[in-house]
Amino acid sequence: MTQYAFHFSGSRCTGCKTCELACKDYHDLPSDIAYRHVYEYETEGAWNKDDKGCWTVDGTSYYISVACNHCDGPACTKVCPTGAMHKEADTGIVAVDTGKCIGCGYCHMACPYNAPKVDRTKGHSVKCDGCADRIAEGKAPICVEACPLRALEFDSKDRVRADHPDSETADIAPLPSKKYTTPNLLISKPTGAEAANAASGKVINTLEVK
Amino acid sequence: MEAAFAEMPLALFSTFAPMGAGAFIVLAMAFSTVSLDEDTRKRIDKMTAIPVALVIVSFIAAFFHLASPLNAFGVFAGLGASPLSNELVAGCVFAIVMLVYWIWALSGKMSNSVRKGLAWATAVLGIVFAWFTGMAYMIDTIPSWNTIAGPIQMVGFALVGGAAVAIVVLALAKCADVLKASTVRTTVLVVLVAGIVAGIGGLAAQAAATGGMGNALVSGADLVGSAMMVIVCGAICLVGTGVCDAFAVRGANASALVGVSCGAAVLAIVGILMLRLAFYAMQLSVGLSIM
Amino acid sequence: MIDTNVSRRTFLKTSGALGALAVAGTGAATADSLFGNGVIAADAETPDEVVWSHCHVNCGGACVLQCHMKDGEITYVESDNTGDGTFGAAGFQARACLRGRSIRRWINSPDRLNYPMRRVAGTKRGEGKYEQISWDEALDTIANEFKRVKDTYGNEAIFIQECSGVEQNVMMNNPFFRLFNLVGGEVTRYGNYSNGALNFGAKPFTYGDSWGARSFRTLAPGELVVLFGNAPSETRMAGDGAGYDLTVAREQKGVKVICIDPRRNDLATNQDVEWIPIVPGTDAALVAGLAHEMIKSDLVDKDFLHKYCVGFDEETLPEGAPANSSYTAYILGTGYDKVEKTPAWAAAITKIPEERIISLAHEIAEAKPCFIAQGWGPQRHTNGDYAARAIMLLPQLVGQVGLPSTNSGMREGNSGFDLSSLPTGDNPIEEQFPNFLWPEAIKDGASMTATNAGIKKGDSLKQPIKFLVNYGNNMMSNQNGDINATTDILRDESLCEFILQYDVVWSDSCNWADIVLPDLTPQETWTMSAAGENNDSKGIWVGRPTSEPKFERREVYEVCADLAKRLGVEDAYTDGGKTREDWVHELYDEFREEHPEAPTWDEMLKDGIYKEAFEPDNDIDPFIVDPEANPLETATGKIQIYSPELAELAKTWELADGDEIHPIPVYVPGHDGPGSETEEYPLTLCGYHTKAHTHSSYANNEIIQDAHRHNVLINPIDAESRGIKNNDRVRVASKQGEVEIEARVTNRVIPGTVMIPEGSWHVADMQGDRVDKGGCLNTLTSRRANPISKQTGQHNALVQVKKA
């Protein structure tokens, strides 16, 4: 099997959400369903006022763009009662067999990356499939091709690793520790990134990432 | 807390199912330890429609929670791997045994020994079902749910809610004397107390643990805080169920029994439903999952 | 329909890793075998038709859109995927941002205008009651009103507003100018809301004309870049934008970037970029503090200042300037105000710690080269003329302008193809008024003069505006300072007697018009643009209509032709019958005469775009090489730290209370500026540009607004004292008005300042409480113009915030 993986260049991303909106356009998603989310994470930081009333601030903010990470040990497939949520044998892409899915929402509950959603009008779970149709045409996923900053890539994991020797399996806040699902998301870290298990801050755009 | 209301169908399922399932403990005890005449048994069998209906209603609620209910038969594929499959298999086995028992009993062609055996089998399977319902939420990416306190709560709800339903069944079946029988009365009291302790205790233990958790989106303390009023009200309702039903089996005369037992059952429904909603409100992912 | 997508079979031949994945299967079964039966494979056997178009609003970019069509509808868009798209590659890809990517939803928006509408007789402007009329009736009304106003007041009472919603293409609102210029002309404006103070209050007095600006692509390895109120990651978002250029330079050349901004803008988030929080409107004070340290520590480039500049010190003051009027005198406390501008003085105003001001002065002075640029935020305050000039002064102090890899202290530069737009003919009316003052030109036009209101090319306006054309803008009740005051002027029908609004969507401004006309979107008609006007890229995009017009929507050129017929100038207007398509074709051919290497028109119809890779100019400037032979276009021919023109204006102009004109870039707080907070309005409000819309364009496209929610940024310190939590609904009130909006409690804004993005649509009961539930910034801003440029100083106001 050739496992596919996303690469996210943390220091290029500007949080513009073109990836998310291009995905919504291509996959014709409504406002309340996104296959890719951009989280705005603010580390713990205090404003310090000196004796003259001047300000300095500790901490920083960074964005992180996350879709399905097509994990090695997906939480979604583990809880799926029907086997509809599965890993493709050839590519390791996590996909929904819509003929089997009952739309129980367990994959949505279990996934710590907020990837699968239940689309009640379609009657099944929906999620990033790595733009399987575009990949089959030799194109990149729409989010990758859309990114104005070229901060996203999707390719075989080996290739992604080779292209980005500084990247590591995603293990930074606000993402969960990689130990839960071993995500196939390689990240070149943004400035000020906090380790997933040492997160001090908060996602502040909570209403934008549902 | 508002987000938990989106899970109302599941909350209804996990309220009604254990209440119906748990009712068979007291009934089985009554059949095993009190000698009942045929008319009484018939009246009880007729009123057993109540727990059966609760279970059926709960299954319907769960069914409509699904986006594609027509594919539901596929759930057995995940047996052993998916905790949801395990729950539903346990639920189906319980429901089938329950229906076999009930229909057979209604037919009037059931021997006493078979009745005892099937009633106990239903009761035990009901508790197993409740346990697996709790287990279904033990997902390792949701640490606030991934605790044995979950299944303990569900068994607790089955015990206290089931006892309340069983007392309604016996009251409506005009079996005040059966309830006064020492074995039944003792069973009812033990089951009520155990259920209240397990239900409230399980949820309290879970809330206490959740309060110390957090992810980048929410803090567990905030989740627990917003659910606190609901938890307290739910717990009061459950204690109220216990008090009413203790009165029902100890002091109430036959005329008051129906009213008191029905009131206790309503308190149980409201209390368990609130605690279930509180449970859903305390969903806290290790990562970025949003209810 | 110009192009059809190649079939999947063709793509299967593609090499590369992804192509290799594709050829793992065979033929049509590939997608299924790879991704399971449950995955709906693209229906590759029915190829999409692709129509090339582009997104052109007023963001400074213009991005390629490949519209994939099925049954006359756009199914999805791709952007520029031609050439090498890898990070930092030579050449460029004009990749659309989220706004262009969401164009389909905007085109199909429920807010689209479908029919000509007329305000119901007997209702007032602002009530919003309209009825459908025929095109003939609408055009007859417009033509008759035009003739009536022209006959009664003259063409001086006719005005065509700016067209931000359809910027950057060859058509814009030129059809109206072309038409009106054939029948006597119209009064015009100068300046704009973007950079009016910079271009009319700072640049002419400092450099004379645009000078010294370079693109981020010219940055040298390891160079220091200092940005004031400049957020290219947000305002220049395209794949060929300055945000991208700077990110490439930072990663590949290791440039060091410092952002001086009241807000941690998106350049200073993920990237290793330092943010120095500053109180908005205090940039000139910071520069003064830096200058003090540079002068005291002998860090200024005296040779540069003496050779190329006037007014740095007493020695280089121009003739006629009084003693102690130099910048050095101002800094050292011997100037007009006798206050020494120490770093401690600057710290108290800017709230930047004194030590950081001192260290920053050394950092900037030691950096060679050093690239200093400002965005258009600092000049959008009532003291913006000075802020802009002060920031321009900084590179002069250290001799870092005119040299390779340096900048003017104005916005970073760019270059691109020149493309002519639809010719508009000659306007016989000369007078121009400052763009920002159009409501005043309606109210008191006849009393606006050169010395009290900055009227140019004439001593005064001849008439107030009586006939107002709004094409492709949302100016009346959204994009102009102080909506409540502006609409009070518009409501009075005895002032402006006829208002036309012509747009693609029913914006709030439509509610103030007498006639509303339905336009086609740029994607639904013929269009052509050069690559983004503020991007450092050379390209030409030709857009063909994606579909036939729906309902009764009509594009502007043809509509003006129908008006021309009614005004008796049709033949002259259409130049003998040319259509919009003919003009686009003709203007392209004109471009091609200058660029014979460009594809033919027919080739352009097929390929949609033409791009040319180039290296930006980075040569030493001729003025620096020989200032005597190549003087600047200023009064002195040099860089003017002291402007004799401003000294003259200070003597002759009539100024509003509190306004001051100084020949040097001093710090003045400005109207409602820093230090004028009150108990009632203790916070400073500052606007900024969001990614969710370009000004008010696309602000009704909900799918983007849900991804980037409209909110007021408030520091946790200010939020806590008001009991405000993240995501709470709050009320923000200024002297001018009140909005209801969501709160974003964040460390990304300096304490004491709250920030609201401009452009959100105004939603208020204007017959009732006027509380704006849309949270439009201009409900809160003022009508106060800058003293010199008379342009928009509105992006500050004093406010209070409380929980809704």
Descriptive overview:
Chain A has helices spanning 18-26, 75-79, 106-110, 132-136, 142-146, 157-163, and strands spanning 4-9, 37-42, 47-49, 55-57, 61-66, 85-87, 94-96, 117-119, 124-126, 152-156, 168-169, 185-188, 202-203. By secondary structure, chain A is of the alpha+beta class. Chain A has a 4-stranded mixed sheet. Chain A has a 3-stranded antiparallel sheet with strand order 5-2-13, with no helix packed on it. In chain A, strands 3-4 form a two-stranded antiparallel ribbon. The longest helix of chain A has 9 residues, at 18-26. Chain A is globular, with a radius of gyration of 18 Å. Helix content of chain B is 76%, strand content 0%. In chain C, α11 packs antiparallel against α14 and α11 packs parallel to α16. The model of chain C is unreliable at 1-45 (pLDDT under 50). Chains in contact: A-B, A-C. Chains A and C meet through α1, β4, β5, α4 and α5 of A and α1, α2, α3, β4 and α10 of C.
Characteristic terms for this protein:
heterotrimer, A: 210 residues, alpha+beta, Alpha-Beta Plaits, three-stranded antiparallel beta sheet, globular, B: 291 residues, 76% helix
Give the arrangement of secondary structure elements:
The complex is a heterotrimer of chains A (210), B (291) and C (804).
Chain A: E1 4-9, H1 18-26, E2 37-42, E3 47-49, E4 55-57, E5 61-66, H2 75-79, E6 85-87, E7 94-96, H3 106-110, E8 117-119, E9 124-126, H4 132-136, H5 142-146, E10 152-156, H6 157-163, E11 168-169, E12 185-188, E13 202-203
Parallel strand pairs in A: 1-12
Antiparallel strand pairs in A: 1-10, 2-5, 2-13, 3-4, 6-7, 8-9, 11-12
Chain B: H1 8-33, H2 38-47, H3 49-65, H4 83-107, H5 112-135, H6 149-172, H7 176-180, H8 182-211, H9 220-250, H10 254-281
Chain C: E1 3-4, H1 8-12, H2 17-22, H3 30-35, E2 49-55, E3 63-70, E4 73-78, H4 98-101, H5 103-107, E5 117-119, E6 130-132, H6 135-153, E7 158-160, H7 174-182, E8 188-190, H8 196-206, E9 224-228, H9 232-235, H10 242-253, E10 256-261, E11 273-277, H11 283-296, H12 302-308, E12 309-310, H13 327-332, H14 343-350, H15 354-366, E13 370-374, H16 384-397, E14 432-434, H17 438-443, H18 450-453, E15 467-471, H19 483-491, E16 498-503, E17 515-518, E18 527-530, E19 538-543, H20 556-566, H21 570-574, H22 580-594, H23 601-607, E20 609-612, H24 622-625, E21 639-640, H25 644-652, E22 683-688, H26 702-707, E23 711-714, H27 716-720, E24 729-734, E25 738-745, E26 753-757, E27 796-803
Parallel strand pairs in C: 7-15, 8-14, 9-10, 9-13, 10-11, 12-21, 15-16, 16-17, 22-26, 23-25
Antiparallel strand pairs in C: 1-2, 2-3, 3-4, 5-6, 5-17, 18-19, 19-20, 22-27, 24-25, 24-27
Helix pairs in contact in C: 6-20, 7-20, 8-16, 11-14, 11-15, 11-16, 14-15
